[in-house]
Amino acid sequence: xxxxxxxxxxxxxxxxxxxxxxxxxxxxxxxxxxxxxxxxxxxxxxxxxxxxxxxxxxxxxxxxxxxxxxxxxxxxxxxxxxxxxxxxxxxxxxxxxxxxxxxxxxxxxxxxxxxxxxxxxxxxxxxxxxxxxxxxxxxxxxxxxxxxxxxxxxxxxxxxxxxxxxxxxxxxxxxxxxxxxxxxxxxxxxxxxxxxxxxxxxxxxxxxxxxxxxxxxxxxxxxxxxxxxxxxxxxxxxxxxxxxxxxxxxxxxxxxxxxxxxxxxxxxxxxxxxxxxxxxxxxxxxxxxxxxxxxxxxxxxxxxxxxxxxxxxxxxxxxxxxxxxxxxxxxxxxxxxxxxxxxxxxxxxxxx
Length: 352
Prior knowledge:
The structure is a single chain. By secondary structure, the chain is an alpha+beta fold. It folds into two domains: 3-195, Peroxisomal Thiolase, Chain A, domain 1; 206-350, Thiolase/Chalcone synthase (Peroxisomal Thiolase, Chain A, domain 1, 3-Layer(aba) Sandwich). It is 37% helix and 25% strand. It contains ten helices and 13 strands. The strands form three sheets. The chain has a nine-stranded mixed β-sheet, with helices on both faces. The protein starts with a strand and ends with a strand. The model has no long low-confidence stretch (mean pLDDT 94). Residues 218-349 form the Chalcone/stilbene synthase C-terminal domain. It holds the Pfam family Chal_sti_synt_N. Keywords: Transferase. Belongs to the thiolase-like superfamily. Chalcone/stilbene synthases family.
């Protein structure tokens, strides 16, 4: 099986959630008690943004202007994250056989994949794949793609997720769905290098054992991400956690059963922190202790919801801060949620 051998992360400068509220979003949302409670209950203490809302208000910008800013600022973050992942894996850009780039917050052609190829000096025959507009769960199918490539071709591959959600602040409104989006989302780039391995000599790091997916099209209206003339607009119903609740345990148990495992045998949980209620739902449905979702809550507090990059941030948190709790041979489940309504999960095994 292929395995993750390097993880890299890059973020713009941090800003405190309270400062964002006091200096910008209080007035932007009308300053009502509901909006204040949403911000206070978001679980976010710090976010990272390429846009300084105290210096420039992008909420009235056209989509074209926002995409120009994405094209200016996303390549640097993506390059830093991928360079760090390659360094952690002990690899050079020339070693890569495939580069997969994920984003739902910006587009241009030539795109981020070409910018990375130029900045890092990728070989001319490196294959490239751009995954767009899948939302917060996109890192996991992206991980499946680079793993399949590494296994089939015997070459290292890389996945880079780059999300600049701060470019999509919407015009002033007190609509609770928009307030929730404005309270949660943040900017980041995260990258992984995946290398081929074998049952005898698995790649060091995190061996990818399986990928599972569940899409409930009957609930597709509960989470949306629509392109408008004023950026991309989030639709986020308060019913999302309840709609996901029924799928979490069956999807995870079915995936684990394929490998002779169960929920109790999992040592770590990299759960996408879509918000505090999402984490509460996953913990309740799987019967997990609060400690199991502590890495996810830590990422939410320090980074906010960075869309597709977030689950990689949580995996890095588990590797860096809970290393003693996940020993070689033990299992980690990663999961993320997004439009569809979709749940994606991955089963990984620590190899070193």
